[in-house]
UniProtKB/TrEMBL annotation:
Protein name from the UniProt record: Arginine/ornithine transport system substrate-binding protein
Location(s) in or outside the cell: Cell envelope
Signal sequence interval, chain numbering: 1-21
Pfam families, per database record: SBP_bac_3 (PF00497)
Gene3D superfamilies according to UniProt: Periplasmic binding protein-like II
Principal localisation: other
Solute-binding protein family 3/N-terminal domain residues: 25-249
Alphabetized UniProt keyword annotations: Signal
Family according to the record: Belongs to the bacterial solute-binding protein 3 family.
GO CC terms in record: cell envelope
Length: 249
């Protein structure tokens, strides 16, 4: 079992209208790695908590899933350009993103965490002026740090792996990232520890949780996806996948 924490969101979805029916595979945009939510096995297979959830939803829709890799910066433009049919990539439902895409009902929440070198001391209630903080660009962590620590030396990276690499190379003072990602990549190293509490708000930044993103006109697919997600929660599949990855309920 992977040592990680995630908060489940059990949202009741009312389904009406005509079910989404199509024989073509559903193409899903994803930015990897972002363990444990999405990452690659040694043979190149894309897997992870959210990947397994969406694969299970596809089974309930009686559709084949095809995962399409896309860097985070271009993941919404790729959806709008029809490179794939939906995004399932640990994407928080936010007001800004909702101006471009439509979201499914939220199906889980990811707390954020501050990580520092064990030998350093920082007061998160200060302005952290000049402190080198690593974040993945265009994420809620980026928005949070930009909002609350504008005087810090904010270093934005195109992918989470490079953030982790620079922290291990001691080119950063702090990293602000998803808690589960930190557990997988930094907090198992005795040089690094969590500082401060887990962060899940404010809602103006974090939104109600993680959801899949769709083109706004694809209402039938959104409805079918929500119905399938509700079904895998009701039949125990969601809990089984969750328990494979996370120790805390």
């Amino acid at each position: 079992m992977r040592q990680a924490t995630c908060c489940l969101l059990f949202t009741t979805v009312l389904i009406g209208g005509i079910a989404y029916a199509d024989s073509k595979p559903i193409r899903i945009g994803v930015d990897v790695p972002y363990a444990p939510y999405q990452y690659k096995e040694p043979d190149g297979t894309i897997t992870g908590f959210e990947v397994e959830l969406v694969n299970a939803a596809c089974e309930h829709m009686e559709r084949e899933c095809e995962w399409v890799e896309q860097g985070w910066d271009g993941i919404i433009p790729g959806l709008m350009a029809r490179k794939y049919d939906l995004i399932a990539s640990a994407m928080n439902i936010t007001e800004e993103r909702s101006r471009q895409v439509s979201f499914s009902a939220p199906y889980y929440q990811i707390p954020s965490v501050w990580v520092k070198n064990i030998s350093n001391e920082y007061n998160l209630e200060d302005d952290l002026a000049g402190v080198a903080i690593g974040v993945q660009q265009a994420t809620i962590q980026d928005e949070y740090v930009t909002t609350y620590y504008p005087d810090a030396d904010i270093r934005r990276y195109g992918d989470s792996g490079t953030v982790v690499t620079d922290m291990h190379a001691e080119r950063l003072d702090l990293v602000f990232t998803a808690y589960s990602l930190a557990q997988e990549t930094m907090l198992q190293d005795e040089r690094f520890i969590q500082t401060g509490d887990l962060i899940t708000g404010p809602e103006s930044i974090y939104g109600p949780g993680i959801g899949a993103a769709f083109r706004p006109r694809d209402e039938a697919l959104i409805e079918a996806f929500n119905k399938a997600m509700q079904e895998i929660k009701e039949d125990g599949t969601f809990d089984n996948i969750y328990n494979d990855y996370f120790k805390d309920q």
